[in-house]
Amino acid sequence: MTHNRSKQARTFTILFAATAMFTACSGCSMFKKDTAHQAAAQKTQVRAIWVTRYDYKTADDVRRIIDDCARGGFNTVLFQVRGNGTVSYPSKLEPWAEQFDYESPGYDPLALAIEEAHKRGMMLQAWVNVMPAWKGPNEPGIRNQLYYKHPEWFWYDRNGVRQPLNHTVGGKSRGWYVSLNPCLPEVREYIVAVFHDLVARYDIDGLHMDYIRFPNEPVVAGEKIPDYPRDARTLELFRRSTNQDPDQNPAAWNNWRTNQVNQLVADVYKMLKDTRPNALLTAAVGSVPTRGLTHFQDGLRWMEDGIIDQVYLMNYTDSVPKFAQRFGPWLMSESEAAVVPGLGIRQKLETKHGAEIAVAQIDVAHNSVQNFAVFAYSSLFDSKNKTFARQNDAEHQKRVIRQDIILPKIQSLARQQ
Length: 417
Fold this sequence. Notes:
With 417 residues, this protein is an alpha/beta fold. It has a domain at 42-289: Alpha-Beta Barrel (TIM Barrel). It is built from 15 helices and twelve strands. The chain has an eight-stranded parallel beta barrel, surrounded by four helices. It has a two-stranded antiparallel sheet with strand order 4-7. Strands 5-6 form a two-stranded antiparallel sheet. The protein is globular.
């Protein structure tokens, strides 16, 4: 009871201080960590940055990225190596990523990133997208990809129509991920096998799971997504487990799908701890738990069940008070899993103002849980990434401004550790 009161008091303090002190001061200390529980969970503060699979092609790119991250004061790199059933390391299970034209680039990006990170005393977590198995609007350019090899593992609606690669509504069109069906035991076994191959062969400090949920959100405005998956095998597994029909008991159907994702997390956690016990299992989760549940993601449950080591909150907002408020449910957990608030550098805001908001959010995160993660590398540094970030002189100048405002804060925290 005392422990819960302490957590509640700290949460209320965060909300009050953030609301009263919306400020971009880079040195203010607004809140203090005050529980032994959190101290035990946080052996080392996390200053993380997400590096996407689009940020690198050559070995020199990887070396420069890790050097930029170290110079910026980050101590953890979330380095993406699996996007949609293709990978950025040699694998017997999945083909090389389309970013490398499905062929070896002549070096091992993951091995090099680990070497460069460890050389600088940094942690490197292999960032993997879990459910996405391809991304539209076009089909894969090779036949040995999951989209062709295992069509039965993908999502189908009640009419037997496969999840589309391209979504069109009112003249607007957008390609999007098509996903594996985690309700199928063979799919869960396959995903665990892919991750086991990675974990067994590479000296990673953690496995960072993204899209560990159903990517069932509308892709184009006004779109209504079918209630996936409705293939015969999935429905039979549900009926066998619950003696229910999805349309007769939608709540049971939702709960069952959530539990299939929970089971996958538990399976990955066991595999990781059996294979590389000191590595962390971490996950990017929606910062609002109730919204996460609409995607059958129950991050709070993973914490309570002890099957996750760190949760990275995708807490992307322009509001500092709202950013702080979203910590609440996660800080109330009795779990020893660490909470790492993730902030997005807001591209739509005036550059200096957006950078100042990022600094204020870093202050809130650091002073409440000591941890934070920044999305993303290409917002702070020039890269090969043309998918999420334009690469021209005007955008370069914006990155310089962000570096001048944001990096001194992170570097200062690094010196204090």
